[in-house]
Amino acid sequence: MTEPQFLSGQFLLSMPGMGDDRFARALIAVCSHDEESALGIVVNHLRGDVTLHGLFEQLGVDPGDMEDGPVYAGGPVEPARGFVLHSTDYEGQGTLNVAGRWALTATLDILRAIAAGTGPKKWLVALGYTGWGEGQLDGELTQHGWMRAEGTEAFLWDTPVEDRWRLAFESEGIDVGLLSPSAGTA
Prior knowledge:
- This protein has one domain: VC0467-like (3-Layer(aba) Sandwich), CATH 3.40.1740.
- The chain has five helices and ten strands.
- Strands 1, 2, 3, 4, 5, 6, 7, 8, 9 and 10 form a ten-stranded mixed beta sheet that branches.
- Strand 2 and strand 3 form a beta hairpin.
- The longest helix is centred in the middle third of the chain and has 9 residues.
- It is globular and about 45 Å long.
């Protein structure tokens, strides 16, 4: 049996034809991966039913002068639970530093700090997450479904949402136009 390759601080890219529409063309920032489980946030699927201001209003947080913006569909697990993926210049209660590359916080304090202008410089808000049980992600990585990528933090903050998946593949030297939606056999 091969040793698991822990992916915290890396990206997962869904392969064309993986068979799960929830992850079609998904780019996932892996925030935690160990022997027991894995957790990631989809960073290129947007929710069309709520905006930042709408979410802040639902949570009783005054957005102040903050610009309105999108809320990401972080994954199918607990889709009503909020997460903020952010730069490492902010640490609050329960903040998880992810390999020094980005951080994850899931408390209201960070939303208040963002609204007040005292939060992280770079951030995105997601509802839901992607999760795997013990050994599940390691098993899925051996099948046609996911590809791992080192990537860059620019995928999170500086790349247009609609380009993130394609550019993540290109950063690994892969032209997505050449990918087959089905796995081959030897």
